[in-house]
């Protein structure tokens, strides 16, 4: 018998791939399995598409289903009275329908039913995200097991490789509700047992907190093998939590961009020579290799700000100015990669730096290994090792205050960086065009005056004519100095600002992950106070939130440390170049002045 469902509420489709429903309408279901809270089916008008699972009730054949029938798998058998038939529901005007799950983005390619579901890689988060403070509670039959992280040596595993897991509570549907939202609790639910509640899942399944695996980790669903070499250690430093320093720091230069060809000259590209200081062996990499590495690192490290690469360009890729500018941008990128205690030691990054350019087989093997890395998503957080013992715990209110302060700081810095970048760009444009033109116009005017004076054939006026002509040449040279100067001082400042604008664009997502974890802790504490959750379960959630908080604060401290280093160095360079520039201008004017001494 075909699966059918009855619509409990009206639903109006708003995105491609969705269908509208009318209350009491009977639909045919393609499958009873939902995709992130959405079902696929055919309505009475023959339209096929997606609709919210919470808006319908599956119609089950009495002989085929064990009694009593319950729509939600997490409702205790016999614990609640059956839901009334659809006709007994209140009219829609008196009882609003539940809020559906956020629909997939417009134009999202829905997979065939039963296939793997891959959320969009884009992030819908911004600075003013709602941190899901109004989360709901789900009633469950007695949850078993502790929520503390369980560190167990895997039997038979190699030395230095450990099974790391967080014992999860029984799985919930995306809404995490024990009854349809918008309906009163059915009678018979009685007083909830102390362990009958759990923290709900976020409604927005496309949020960074969910896609990064942060939610699954906090709810205790992560499990994997962690090698000693994969551990990322956070230590307590003078400024608070910090990433443990790389014991073998190194740098890597990017030099000699050269144009190369393949396929008998049919395809051209630019290759950059990389020379890591810890190996001394040069390798050549194309921009596509940088781009691949960036994608892997951005996916693997959700609480680390992976620096952005210089932007791509469709045309003019082989022009000298573009190649030079890209090389400088890549040099800044490489400096930040090598300076980060975690990124610098990442296997994928080391493969990128050390694999010989001519060994295509070794490159592909390392590439596949990085792409099959299991310590991503929720499992990534298992690799983070945080301080323990007296004085190592975090005060959540203080953490929240620090993160909010950093959020305000980055927003203000982003605005200031945009303003400075615009000002510097406009000033550079004026120097290259306007200032050069104006100074050379003054020089030309002096030259015309000198030419006019040369009409006087008196010998005593020759020295004056020559001095004025030299002054004209001085102003012409000063114009050229102005045109060339932005390359020396303003361009490096704008290159640094571009790099930091990439970092600032990363932090909203990083903050969102930490905020999402903090919200789950608050919710669990509320359940403990209401007697709906065991203290041990809430402590497990808080412990996992602490891991995310330690990592977030460590990344914030690293950002401030590197920011002070970079802007100190760049401002010193800018002012030094400004002083040299005006010394050159002064020298030209003094040389012109001395020409009048012999007149």
Automatic annotation (TrEMBL):
The keyword Magnesium does not apply. Residues 85-112 have a biased composition (Pro residues). PROSITE patterns: PX, SH3. Residues 250-360 form the PX domain. The keyword Membrane applies. It is found in: Cytoplasmic vesicle membrane. GO terms for biological process: cleavage furrow formation; endocytosis; endosomal transport; mitotic cell cycle; plasma membrane tubulation; protein transport. GO terms for molecular function: phosphatidylinositol binding. A 1,2-diacyl-sn-glycero-3-phospho-(1D-myo-inositol-4,5-bisphosphate) binds at residues 286, 288, 326. Gene3D superfamilies: Arfaptin homology (AH) domain/BAR domain (1.20.1270.60), Phox-like domain (3.30.1520.10), SH3 Domains (2.30.30.40). Residues 1-61 form the SH3 domain. Keywords: Cell cycle, Cell division, Cytoplasmic vesicle, Endocytosis, Membrane, Mitosis, Protein transport, SH3 domain, Transport. Pfam families: BAR_3_WASP_bdg (PF10456), PX (PF00787), SH3_9 (PF14604). InterPro entries: AH/BAR_dom_sf, PX_dom, PX_dom_sf, SH3-like_dom_sf, SH3_domain, SNX18_PX, SNX18_SH3, Snx9_fam. It comes from the Eukaryota. It is a peripheral membrane protein. Residues 123-133 have a biased composition (Acidic residues). One of its GO terms (cellular component) is plasma membrane. Residues 85-197 are annotated as: Disordered. PANTHER family: SORTING NEXIN (PTHR45827), SORTING NEXIN-18 (PTHR45827:SF4). Belongs to the sorting nexin family. This is SNX18 protein. It comes from Menura novaehollandiae. The gene is Snx18.
